[in-house]
Fold these 2 entries.
Entry 1:
Amino acid sequence: MRVGVVGQGYVGLTAAVGLAEQGHVVTGIDCDPARVAMLAKGRMPFEEPSLELPLAAATDAQSLSFVTDLADLEVPVDAVVVAVGSPPTPSGRPDLRQAGAALAGVMALDPLPGLVVVKSTIPPGTSSGWLAGRWGERLADRYVYSPEFLNQGAAIEDWRHPARLVAGLTDAGLLPVVRELYRGIDAPLVVTDPTSAEVVKYASNAFLATKVSFVGDLITLCEGTGADIDDVLTATGLDPRIGTAFLRAEGGYAGSCLPKDTLALRHWARLTGRPLPVIEAVIAANQAQQLRTVRIIEEGLGPARLLAGDAIVAVLGLRYQPWTDDLRDAPCMTLLPELQTIGARLRVFEPTLTPGQITTFFPGIEVAAGLEEALTGAAAAIVLTDWPQTVNAPWPQLATLMETPRLVVDTKNCLPADMLAASPLRYHSMGPRAHTTLSPASPPHIAEHENASPKQTPRPGPRIP
């Protein structure tokens, strides 16, 4: 098939590369000329390690090319995939102007493609509004809503080995074309109507957000009882009814999907008068979890010292995961301004950003070139990113550079707790941790299970029917 993919962000580029791998001839469309120029050379415009080699291979093989406008397509296409952004407005409502403009461009093509697939995240009822309203049967006869379920850091593997494919459509005659588009992918195919497919996307992310917020309650429970949070989460996650994914003790959920989609659901609920109390509770719990670190710093250093402006707090990392440069809704965006409001003097170490970039995000803070510079004279340190240079640092020696109380807040539970306990540092993890390493003579321990990240282990599923 000849396929056009509108939008070359995280989802669109993954779709374009994945479809090219499956043997389709793909044209990626993006309105940013600089991005298109980079992609045409096989270079990534953002950080996603899993896509670098497949992108280069697809462009070298000439199965994937790029243009800046749908009108620039040289030949008619059999299918168009719309994967543009739907960013949240201040109220949480998704902004659908990009998706609407992309569909308008598709519907202006002559001839029309036989298949129009929308992957952008859109609120329930949006597809039916488009189908019944603006474009009617001209779009309904070729329309499929097929949401994406990608994890940053493992995008192409998630495309190749999804847990499921979802196709929301009104015309069952489109199924053979849908199967052809997704040829070579072994996964269950759920065929439903477009509105149900829209809800599936939100339901998945809302449930994952619920797991993360529930872990916040477990952290509080473990802090109140002295239970080892690592062991509690490991044992809980080994229950196959629960699973280990997204069951990790850290400072709440973040990124480009879970915050956006839970806020969108809350906005929909309030707009329609249909309460979603669990979603409301999840959002409130996540906000409290993100601010837990502020409370720890304020209690550890004391309000008087903070207000005096002489307490340096080192912030180690700004990314919420090392494998993504996407800072949308990263914990730092909430945490750092809150720390500034209580008087903390912030000094940031982030190895992937220039000082100018950091101060653009956070005016008025200091920037450190390395860990030693960040920690020298600091009364507290907050680990926001589990960078290897931070996790493997000689913390007993670094402690001598800090001022009392030498408080270290580990929002990722990634530091070696036993080493820090033997140092002059005051180590505060997300919930009590009894140990992180064992000697060969120690009894078996399963704390190194797949709680390390929310990425899923790819596994092939049943063949598409």
Entry 2:
Amino acid sequence: MAYKLLKKEGHARRGEFQTVHGTVQTPCFMNVATVAAIKGGLSTVDLKEVGAQVMLCNTYHLHVRPGDDKVFELGGLHKFTNWDRPILTDSGGFQVFSLAKLNKITEEGVTFNSHVDGRKIFMGPEESMQIQSHLASTIAMAFDECVENPAKYQYAKDSCARTLRWLERSKKEMERLNSLPETINKHQMLFGINQGCTFDDLRIEHMKEIAKLDLDGYAIGGLAVGEPKEDMYRIISAVEPYAPENKP
């Protein structure tokens, strides 16, 4: 992947990056297809006609049904959806911590109950990467803990440290999966996620640490989840200078 900066104005960037499924112009709006379908009866043909660039699909929901193994058998999300442009899959972390009844967080991962049938599911960095590899998306998001706001400082700090360790495991597992002969998309990209709730110092330190891993791209997570908009904009402004300039 190569990111090309085309223009900068203040902190705003206009650029593009190459993927195995085509070029993405940034900034861009990602159309949300939670279970690989756009609500409102829009087809992938419709999306192309309106100039959509990236489809966003949900790892947790697709794992629960129809099952990532089924999508893998059918040739991955691009064949499953009849979409030949980039697809981003989230890590499943947000749904694990918000939709499902949470049982237990450990260093290994999270055990929780499915919102569909109540069955117990375990998901950690390796499982999230394996599911996303089955889905064969263009961009996979690293498994992270999305902490509910407001949060206590010490818990947020400990969570950041755990999310960093999970990111290192996500990267190692993705490298392994991309090397397997049966993997559909051997060029799957990994984006890391910055966390730290609404604490500026935790956010900045976490971004510095994840930037060292030289990932394909980076996201600012755990925002727009109920905190005041002023806090969201403050955090983005504080973190942005520490995000890698040569990555989306």
